[in-house]
User: What shape does this take?
Amino acid sequence: MVSLLVAQVDLFFQVTIFLLLTLGMLFERKHLAKIHGQLMLTAVLLNVVSFLAVMAPAMDKIGGITSDTLRVVAMGHASLGGLALFLSFWIVGSWLLQPFLTQHLKMRCYSALNKKIMWAILFLWLGSLILGFFLYMMVNTHLLGSFQLTMFGS
Assistant: This one.
């Protein structure tokens, strides 16, 4: 998968991104939409960097993991995280393109549909973060058992 140091840095990075999301939600509750949007854009960009630097290179190894438990956790983490990332592109795109989309009420950034998607993203991201934490613990510690990363064909 990835080295212990890279995994630790990425775990810290992901927790920081989740804290940005939470902080952004608090600003949205205070009706500070511009700050909310900027925090969400920052979180998405940081997650894209994290994905490209750490997660994408490790994704091709998921199918070769010999432990079924580890494979299920890794696939769940990748699926929830990928869906959250995809949906976050939709939300950030609708925010950035809002001046061009104002005639279509369903496309507005703060429409009822997008608010539901924002909540879904938050829960998907939290689920992915939790599974990523379990994945980290399974691979890098013995607290949850011993999961060796012996790959097929290695």
